[in-house]
Amino acid sequence: MKQLILIVLLMFAFQSFSQDLETYTYAIKGKDTLKMDVYSPKRIKKKDSLPVVLWMHGGGFSGGSRANPDEVRLMEYLTENGFIGISISYRLLRKGKPTGFGCECTKEEKRFIFANAAIDYLDAANYVFNNAKQLKIDTSKIIAGGSSAGAEGMLSAVFMKDYFMADAARYQHLKFAGVWSLAGALMDVNYITKTNAIPTVMFHGTADNLVPFGIAPHHFCKMQQPGYMILYGSKPITEKLDELGTSYYLHKVIGGGHELSSIPFDQLDTLLEFINKTMLNSEVIQTEKIITKSILQK
C-alpha cells in the first residue's frame, strides 16, 4: 500500500513539474527545414503572456541539435520558473566540410557562416514575434541565448544585423530584452551602441583556444592562414557594456577553456535572479565573477 501511495505521489510530482512541448517549422531554406521546439509550463493559462529564452545550440556550425540533452534540460528548467523556452535548429553550413570551421576555413567563409546564422536566428525570432499570441509570449521579454557557435550566431543577430544584411530593416521591430552568451564572440564590438546595448550574461574561460575571451584571432589562427579573423570575446563585450552603463554579468574562469560553453546548471538560480532584475525589471547591475580553473577542479 505504501509503495502504491509513493508511486501516485511521484506521478503527481512529475505531472506538476512537466511541460508541454510543441514543434514548429519557422523557415524552409533550400533543403533545410528549420524547426523550433517550444517548451511551455504545463499549467499555462489561456491569457498568459510569458518571457521567453530563444536558444541557439553550439556545435561549430557542423553539428549539435536543438534537442541535445543539455538543451532539453535547460528548457525544462525555464518552464519550471515561469518562462517559455525555445530551442531552435539552424543551417549547419560547415557540416561535412573537410576544412571544418578552423584555420583552413577562410575568413570569407566564416563571415558568410556568421551572416547566415544571424539570419536564421532573426527569422526564428520573427516567427516568435508574429505568433506571440498563440505561443503565449510577451514580445517585450524575448531573451536571446546561445552557446559557442550558437552564441556567435546569436550575438551577430542581436548586435550586427546591420553589418551582415542589406535588408536588416525588416527585423527592426524585433527588440530583445537581454542576451545570454556561453563562450561567444563578435566580429566587431563597436557595433554595440547606446541604442542596442542590452543586459547581458557572459560565461567564458580566459584560455579558450577556439573562441577568444579577449581580442584575438578565431581559433588563434596565424596571420598567414586562410581562417585568420579577429574576434571580440566576452572581455571586450562587457567592457563596452560597462562603458555604456548597461547591465552585465560576466563569469570569468581564469585558465578555463571552451568547456565554459556548457550550460552552467549549478548556477542557473543565480542567473535567473540577474535576468529577472535586469532584463525583466530594468535594474542596472554590473557584476564580474572571477574564479580559477584550479579551484573548480578541487
UniProtKB/TrEMBL annotation:
The keyword Signal applies. SUPFAM superfamilies: alpha/beta-Hydrolases (SSF53474). The keyword Signal applies. GO terms for molecular function: hydrolase activity. It holds the Pfam family BD-FAE. Keywords: Hydrolase, Signal. Gene3D superfamilies: alpha/beta hydrolase (3.40.50.1820). Residues 1-18 form the signal peptide. Residues 36-152 form the BD-FAE-like domain. This is Alpha/beta hydrolase. It comes from Subsaximicrobium wynnwilliamsii. The lineage of its organism: Bacteria, Pseudomonadati, Bacteroidota, Flavobacteriia, Flavobacteriales.
